[in-house]
Amino acid sequence: MGRRVVTDGLENRVAQLRQERGWSQGELARRAGLSRQALSAIEAGRYLPNVTVALRLARALGCRVEDLFSWPPAILEAEWPSGAGEARTAPARVGLARVGGRVLAWPLSGGLAFQIPADGFRQGGKRPGPVPVALTIRPEILEETVVLGGCNPAFPLLAAHFARARPASRLLWIPMNSRAALRALARGELHIAGTHLWDPRRGQDNLDAARRELGGRPVAVITFARWEEGLILPPGNPRRIRRLSDLARRGLRLVNREPGAGSRWILARRLREEGIQPSGLEGYRRIVRDHLGVAAAVAHGLADTGPGALPAARAFGLAFLPLAEVRYDLVIPLDFLGSPTVRALLEVMADGAFRRDLEAIGGYDTRPTGTLVARLPGP
Q1: How far is CA 342 from CA 127, 210, 277, in A?
Q2: What is the DSSP letter of 95?
Q3: What is the 3-state secondary structure of 247-303?
Q4: Residues 141-181: pLDDT tens digits?
Q5: What one-character DSSP code corresponds to residue 129?
Q6: Which of 84, 135, 177, 314 could form a cystine bridge with 261, CB 3.0-4.6 A?
Q7: Helix or strand or coil: residue 355?
Q8: At what angle do helices 51-61 and 25-32 cross, to 10 degrees?
Q9: Phi/psi at 249 (5° precision)
Q10: Residue 140: left (phi > 0), alpha (psi -120 to 50), or beta?
């Protein structure tokens, strides 16, 4: 029938489901082909049924074996990242990773809610500080997880290639703008920050921003790809937006990225160079949180234009007015650069299979992909 075991902590719902159906122990025993004494021992937790008996009980009760018997999830204490905003009412779906000596619980909200299986469910706690998380994964997976913050829409594609090439490891992408990613990296909440902060004066995209935000922490800056930044427009450009001064027309519907986003910075700088006050434009304060969000707003007729990257326009079949060519870089602390998992991710990124896939989307220049741009701090 089974074996005598210590079942402390095992959740046994046989009696509960039997009573919900209004059956006696004798009735369930008869339906499952057991003696009443055997069923009584199972319900009392004195015996753990073998697979055959468990399947008989589940079939008799019209449920799954896991509805009858389950171990409670392991509880892990994690930190709610400062960059994640305020914690929501428990339970909350989270993605987990160990970053340095800390276990971080990033909330899977927005688009991530539908893209990533939860690593666990937050059971309470306040931000900032430790929060208990009921695990749905093996704890050792946390050690093989790389957390990448940034706004590049190709990061889920990189995660898929990484999972294919290295099934034991994974990439957890946290969407955020470039400046927010650098600040989260400075707080020790990420392994890698993705950034595309244009620097037309010195021609050193991202480097000055990384120096300012990271406070002298030694990092490597490695190129993900190059792309063009500009205005995303409807197919055929029906509003005939050919120069920045056209944005000042009355009735033109603009959407913008949030402060800290690289595409917003480029738009604001170019407007000022043209003598146009950005804040005076209609819709300048209407915020969309990522490149694909801007493209979607334009594609569905909710806006006439907005700042973004060429690959987002290509993905939606939209027109594009270029404003600057920018390098999208990954900023990686040197103490993480030596990690086997991070090294494996960089190898996948530089691999021909991923680069061909990225180029097929359109708008990405992968020739510099994987190039070490700089080590900071440096001369």
Answers
A1: 28, 19, 43
A2: E
A3: HHCCCCCECECCCCCHHHHHHHHHHHHCCCCHHHCCCCCCECCCHHHHHHHHHCCCC
A4: 999 999 999 999 999 999 999 999 999 999 999 999 999 99
A5: S
A6: 177
A7: helix
A8: 120
A9: -60, 145
A10: alpha
